[in-house]
# Entry
Amino acid sequence: LHSDQGWYYQMKKYQKTLKDSRIIQSMSRKGNCLDNAVMENFFGLLKSELLYLQEFESMEHFEKELDDCIHYYNHKRMKVKLKDLSPIEYRTQVLEAA
# Structure
């Protein structure tokens, strides 16, 4: 679980509840909003490209659409910042050049 520096995330009881549930806590560094920037951007895209565009018949339907969306994001969605490659293509190219 990744969270910000909110006071309740720092409470011992909250931390114990997470630990008892076998959840590892991760917090941003104090005053550094950039720690969350990549995930905030991804979740914003996920909401605008998946959640706000359709209604889901069931949890299974949602899970399938989510899997499809993440696959598209990583394997097919070309990004200008990545030289018009998908994230997977870009990483593969960088690794082969190394």
In short: The first strand starts at residue 2 and ends at 3. The CA atoms of residues 58 and 75 lie 26 Å apart. The first helix runs from residue 12 to 20.
